[in-house]
Amino acid sequence: MKKIFFGILIISNIFAQSSILSQFSDSFANIVEGANESVVTITTTNTVSMREYSDYFRGWGRYFPEEYESKSLGSGVIVDEKNAYIVTNHHVIYDERNDKPVDQIQVELIDKRVFKATVVGLDKGSDLAVLQIDAKDLKAIKIGDSDKVRVGEWVLAIGSPFSENLSHTVTGGIVSALGRNNLMLGADTYQDFIQTDAAINPGNSGGALLNLKGELIGINSAIISGNGRSNAGIGFAIPAQMVQKVMNDLIDKGYVVRSYLGIYMQDITEDLYEAMDLKNRTGAIVSDIVEDSPAEKAGLEEGDVIFEFEDKSITNGAQLRNLVSGTTPGTKVKLKINRSGKDKYVYVTLEERTETLLASSSSNAFNSLGLTVKNLSQDILDQFKIDLDVSDINGVIVVETEQNSPADKAGLTKGDIILRVGRSLVDGLSSFKEELQKYDEDQKILMLVRRGNSSRYLTIQR
Q1: Distances (CA, A) of 347 to 12, 87, 318
Q2: Which of 126, 176, 205, 221 is catalytic?
Q3: Long-range residue pairs from 454-460, CB within 8 A, at least 24 positions apart, any chain
Q4: Is residue 226 within 8 Å of 45, Cβ to Cβ?
């Protein structure tokens, strides 16, 4: 009798598990059927000038074309069926070499209808763009709340990897991590990526990342792999909350409205944690303050550690940057800081970040080199533990280098003091800029750099 009972129990469990798996499979299929109409394939065509090479080869009596047509592939998501708005990545439809959108953008729907797209708005900082097509009978995706996404939950990615023939490819996986940053080069970027192991390949950029409710929780944007050309289980998506904010601003205003605080920040390293006798390893250290900025007006000081923004804990500078930029200009926000070992609150009224402000506040950031420098001061020498008197040395000090940038590849690092550019002495930020302007983009830049007690020459190739 016992054997019969256990046999029935085992068989019941097998059937129950089979039923659950069947429901799970049906759930995935239903999500894809509901979302596929909202995902599009984007093909771009761009004319690339080769005149400089053509002239060179002509001098040797050889033919070389003056220009050629370049085609690339991406994906997009319909977010407004009435106005036929589509969200995709900035890098999908922008020609970085000539600093303009590509010549032609073509959108193909799942029903094989093809439309020419126009650009509504672009935002390089978030790697997002909004397109519009002249089409009816569209289906917009439902946008979910990416703030509620949890590590470990199941997700699906839809896009067009590698070829138009592979449009609406569906892959599945889980959310591997949240809040990833430092993936995009450039000082003026806003990064808060969702990491997933759902297969994302070239061509998937701009496609949809969906939760199990069939809601858009992210726009697929980037991959990391050994060869940079195929999936290795690490893909990244821009969170839907950021997408919605950027999209609405681009449609309503033509640009993204962002607030600014007016500080330069550093993440807390182990060395800084010990040297500054901090209470924890999370937060952002104020390394410099922009003149006449909201931060200066509120009384923030160099060396302050910001570890809460409106009662939300701050993990690093990238997170603080995103929270500030996403807050409406004119808002008075509460910051919890640590100053000289004591916690206190500072109230700051944020202001809108303008293009003029961007140009002035980032004047010490040289994006093409992946390098940020500052004028020398005794405070900054002490901060980098450089045993020198500021009156004994001229130059600029490196305070930031971007990973895999020309500066990084040349061997420059934080705390290096640039003494000369070429054969000319550098006595501050102004002369440093002036000397760099003498070099063409394809020229190597010679720099004399002091590190510790010795100096050496380095060459930087843009």
Answers
A1: 62, 36, 20
A2: 205
A3: 455/419, 458/410, 458/411, 458/412, 459/410, 460/369, 460/406, 460/407, 460/410, 460/412
A4: no
Range 352-388 burial, b when 16+ CB lie within 10 A, else e: ebeeebeeebbebbbeebbbbbbbbeeebbebeebee
Contact 448, 418 (CB under 8 A): yes
Whole-prediction pTM = 0.70
Residue 127 appears among annotated catalytic residues: yes
One of 38, 75, 90, 91 is an active-site residue; which one? 91
For residue 368, indicate whether it is catalytic: no
Q: Spot the catalytic one: 123, 127, 267, 416.
A: 127
Q: Which residues in 181-251 belong to E strands, given as ranges? A: 193-196, 208-210, 216-223, 235-239
Backbone CA torsion sign across 312, 318, 320, 325: negative
Do 324 and 350 meet the contact criterion of CB atoms below 8 Å apart? yes
3-state secondary structure of 12: helix
* Domains defined along the chain, listed by start: 40-132 (2.40.10.10), 146-252 (2.40.10.10), 259-357 (2.30.42.10), 363-461 (2.30.42.10)
- Asked if residues 69 and 108 have their Cβ atoms less than 8 Å apart, the reply is no
Instruction: Measure CA 127 to chain center.
Output: 7
Distance between CA atoms of 363 and 374, rounded to whole angstroms?
A: 10
* 214's tokens: 């069939």
Residues 6+ apart with CB under 8 A from 394: 376, 419, 425, 426, 427, 428
Q: What is the pLDDT tens value at each position of the chain, 462 positions in all?
A: 555 555 555 555 555 555 666 666 677 788 888 889 999 999 999 876 665 555 555 555 555 566 667 788 999 999 999 999 999 999 999 887 777 888 899 999 999 999 999 999 999 889 999 999 999 999 999 999 998 999 999 999 999 888 778 888 899 899 999 988 777 655 567 888 999 988 888 888 999 999 999 999 999 987 665 555 555 668 899 999 999 999 999 999 888 899 989 888 888 878 777 777 778 888 888 877 888 899 999 999 888 899 999 999 988 888 898 899 889 999 999 999 988 888 899 999 999 887 545 444 445 667 678 888 888 877 778 778 888 887 778 889 998 888 778 888 888 988 899 998 887 888 888 788 888 888 877 788 888 898 887 778 888 887
**CA distance linking residue 151 with residue 182, whole number of Å:** 19
